[in-house]
């Protein structure tokens, strides 16, 4: 074999080896590229799944959208302001002040409220005789009432703590007649249950006794009957020293006045001289009930109004 031939063989083999090496290198390179391409989608998928929590983050923001529910109480504040809109209701008593302010004008305006029910009209042809049947309250006018009616014969009958039933029994037992006009100033000494306990029972008893007394007065010659209502003053008018007495008794005076009103409804001939309406003034009593001189004068004028006689203004009222 010649040297040239040997060299040709060697170079030929080397060329084939190089070709084989290049082919192998190309195959490896393509494999790497393919592997990289195949691995890229997996990375993309992870990125999406990793980003998914960020899309869920708005769910953690939901409480901030719920904040308006915590703001509702601030919208409810106007309900706490409602009392300020209700204040006019507390101002209503100021509109009632004129009822207490009336007496500060003239005596005539005071006495304009003196008759609640007119009853039968006074007949000038009747004898000018008047009987006052009373307890300790009306006894406060026993001297000035006759003086205020100089043309009349005035007969005062009564005693302290006189109750209706006893008054009727004593009147029936007295042989003397009564005046053509009978004035009844009773009711302060009557029986009632506090806070209207058994009110119907006590009211029925009062009504029976009142009706019986009126029947006896008529039998005794009374033609016109005037009943004087009970004083029920504003608490501010009660002297401090009389508060205990007022708390003990005054609570049922409105009950009596209710029944006197019912009496006048049952018997329209009966007149109510409304001492309750007239006497809501200071300085009339030395306690909550019994009369000072000024109070006695005003009660006399109230009785005169009930009878149907002209009244006289009282200085200072």
TrEMBL record:
- Composition bias, Low complexity: 53-106
Region described as Disordered: spans on this chain: 53-107
What this protein is called in its record is Unannotated protein
